[in-house]
Each structure stands twice: as C-alpha cells, then as structure tokens.
Design a protein that fits this description.
four-stranded antiparallel sheet, alpha+beta, binds zinc ion, two-stranded antiparallel ribbon, Zinc finger GRF-type domain-containing protein, 2 domains, transmembrane helix, 1 helix
C-alpha cells in the first residue's frame, strides 16, 4: 500500500472488524478500527489502524511507549486484497469526481464566506444609515419648532413696529398743534 497521504482521504468503514475467527488488535491490545483508503494510489483498499489514531490528531503519530492509552500506537495492517484493473479504475474515477466536487464545494464555501462578509458589511452600513436617519429626523423636528417660534417672534415685532409708528404720528401731530397754538398767541 502506498504512503498514507492525507487523513481526509480515509473514511472509517466500520470498526471492530473480525478477520476469520480473531479480532484484529492493535499494540494497545484494543480492537483496531477498519478504514477504507481513498488515496489515488490505493483507492478502495481497506486497512486496520489503531483506534486512537483519529483521536490523537490523525496523522500526528505519537511515539508509542508501552501500552499508554490515548496515543496512536501506529498499528497498521492491510485488510483484503488491493484493487486492480477495472475496479481500481472505477475507484480512481470516483475519487477524482469526489476531489473535483470537494474543490467545487470549497470554492462555493469561499464564495459563501465572501457573500456573508459583504452581507454583514452592508447590514452594518444599513444600521448606521438607519441611526443617521433617526438623528436627522430629530434635527428636522427641532428646526421646525425653531422656525415656528421665529415666525411668532417676527409677527410680534411687526405688531410692535406698527404701534410705534402710530405713536410717532400722534406725537408729531401734537407738536404741530403746539407750534400752531404758540404762533397764534404771538399774532
Ligand atoms: Zn493502538
């Protein structure tokens, strides 16, 4: 079997597989898990692997000391014959299709992330605009109040001005009358 290139190319088929009459045990003396390889070199090849393999970070094989639990003891054993001919072609074709789909899914996920990010930015901008709009409406209401107050003040001032003019006319008439009276007395 070719080197295991990536753990993502392995899929657990079923664990605790029985071979013949015996259960396959890893160096921990626990039942090994059965996997199917989905590497290009060995598509469809099944193999046993230490049950702690996936738990201990997949390919990060920890040097196994004694029967320490939780560490990958790196136990590996092929199960079943390797695929050849038509079967291998079919597996390889399926694998290529899967890889192509995975690539497409990745592109779509990236696109989705970008769209989500843009959507978040637009949403934030919309919220800011909403806040500005509320503030602007408050300012408009304030200005409308001021405008009404100013109009009332202008009306009051106009009224005062008219009254002042009338008073001036009356004073002028009085002065004219006094002058006429004095002139009349002298004559
Ligand atoms: Zn083990």
């Amino acid at each position: 079997m070719a080197a295991i290139s990536s753990s993502s190319e392995m899929s657990p088929a079923r664990s605790e597989e029985v071979v013949g009459d015996s259960v396959v045990m890893c160096r921990h003396r626990v039942r090994a898990s059965l996997y199917t390889s989905w590497t290009m070199g060995n598509p469809g090849q099944t193999f046993f692997r230490c049950g702690y393999w996936e738990r201990s970070g997949k390919l990060s094989i920890v040097l196994w000391v004694g029967d320490e639990q939780g560490n990958d003891c790196a136990f590996f054993q092929c199960y079943g014959p390797p695929c050849f001919g038509r079967e291998k072609e079919i597996h390889t074709f399926g694998l290529k299709q899967r890889n192509s789909l995975k690539e497409k899914v990745k592109v779509l996920k990236d696109l989705n992330n970008k769209v989500t990010h843009k959507w978040t930015v637009i949403n934030e901008k919309c919220e800011k605009m909403e806040t500005l709009n509320i503030q602007l409406q408050g300012t408009i209401e304030e200005l409308t109040k001021w405008k009404k107050m100013l109009q009332i003040k202008i009306l009051e001032l106009k009224k005062e001005l008219r009254l002042h003019r009338r008073k001036s006319v009356v004073y002028f008439m009085l002065i004219v009358l006094v002058v006429l009276y004095v002139l009349n007395l002298k004559m």
